[in-house]
Specification:
399 residues, alpha/beta, Rossmann fold, 2 domains, six-stranded parallel β-sheet
Length: 399
């Protein structure tokens, strides 16, 4: 990862206008914000800039209005939630550029905060139109990107603005980039990666990239069944992408060449139907799965062996659950391994970084999230980073 400027590199910003890209794409129900996590993530950056006397203009998208104004996707709907988290009054400006914004800047005092309208109401945002970016930049003195979750998109307010204004990473973006750098940029070895989830197809690029980067690749979830099938295991009625067994073979071959050990479960938890605590529930060796059974979690012996692997590692990257964790008791493996990772992190022997929506939910469910070194709330951006792809919003800050 290249060098990027942070808020520490700012001089005196009193009265200057900070254009700050944040993530306000919040879950709503009946016009009410149901989860304020993303506001909390950017609050330190917003309050630090306001505290230094800048006039803070927040830029964000909301939903997918497709370049048209839509009353149900106006950011005016999140103002109350933003004010509540920041503990300050926040102005709403129904434009992102032009004289209305200039007028608002004139009204704001140093330390005041405003939210500009949904950037995606204008086609220039997703098209990364230079004229649109330039028009937004005209009302600002510098740009701060604090939205890692939108960094995998080259849009006007994630990438375009960096061409017209001095640009900095906000505190949340900085923390994310530093954590990711520690995890795969220049990690302490040995490195383990846990990759779970239902389908190999959605994580192909991740798996191909990781075998050259990590020492241990732990595969769980429905994807493990495809790898087991590639090894000649009869997986019964389990979720399995039989058309991808050749690809699974290739990935295992590449891992061998790179000196990366692939860990597949050798005992599994199976049932005849997918339901909570079904009567047909049993644990067996992977070679004993019956034709009418499905694999729904990694077995206890395999989890114990995986815990022993983590004890030898210094770094862990985690994306995706090991089993069908939303339904008990198929959360057992994920919970047990997450607790091991959390304990090792707490005692200082492991740097653990996890990301993706399902993963965050699974680690919270395990009560392990707070002890991980870093948890990324970004879904798509985290996956693309795990694939080794350059994220345009990050690359723009490194220029």
């Amino acid at each position: 990862m290249g060098a990027f400027k942070t808020l520490d590199d700012l001089g005196d910003v009193t009265g200057k206008v900070a254009l700050v890209r944040v993530d306000l794409n919040l879950p709503m129900d009946g016009g009410q914000v149901t989860d304020k996590t993303r506001i909390h993530a950017s609050a330190p950056t917003i309050l630090e800039l306001a505290g230094k006397g800048a006039k803070v203009l927040l830029l964000a998208h909301f939903g997918r209005p497709g370049g048209e104004r839509s009353s149900t996707q106006s950011l005016s709907m999140v103002i109350d939630a933003v004010q509540e988290v920041l503990g300050k009054e926040v102005m709403f400006v129904p434009e992102v550029a032009g004289p209305v914004v200039a007028q608002a800047v004139g009204i704001l005092r140093p330390g005041d905060i405003a939210v500009l309208e949904n950037t995606r109401f204008w086609k220039g945002e997703e098209a990364n139109d230079p004229a649109f970016a330039k028009a937004i930049a005209a009302n600002g003195d510098f740009f701060v990107n604090d939205a890692f979750s939108a960094a995998h998109r080259a849009h006007a307010t994630t990438e375009g603005l960096t061409h017209y204004l001095p640009s900095y990473a906000g505190r949340s973006m900085q923390a994310e980039l530093e954590a990711l750098g520690k995890a795969l940029g220049d990690p302490e070895r040995p490195v383990a990666a846990v990759v779970g989830g239902a389908k190999v197809s959605s994580k192909l690029a991740v798996l191909k990239h990781l075998v050259s980067k990590v020492d241990h690749l732990i595969i769980g979830g429905g994807m493990a069944n495809t790898f087991l099938a590639a090894r000649g295991v009869d997986v019964g009625k389990s979720l399995c992408e039989h058309d991808l067994t050749d690809t699974a073979e290739e990935i295992m071959g590449a891992a061998d060449q790179a000196g990366c050990t692939v860990h597949l479960p050798y005992d599994v938890v199976v049932a005849k139907e997918f339901a909570a605590n079904p009567p047909s529930l049993r644990t067996c060796n992977v070679h004993e799965v019956a034709a009418d059974e499905m694999i729904l979690d990694v077995g206890p012996q395999a989890v114990e062996a995986l815990a022993d692997v983590l004890k030898t590692c210094r770094t862990l990257v985690w994306n995706g659950p090991l089993g069908a964790f939303e339904t008990e008791p198929f959360d057992a493996a994920t919970v047990a391994l997450a607790k091991t990772a959390a304990a090792l992190t707490k005692e200082g022997s492991l740097v653990s970084v996890a990301g993706g929506g399902d993963t965050v939910a699974a680690l919270n469910h395990a009560g392990a999230a707070q002890d991980f070194t870093y948890i990324s709330t970004a879904g798509g951006a985290f996956l693309e980073w795990m694939e080794g792809r350059e994220l345009p919003g990050v690359a723009a800050l490194e220029r």
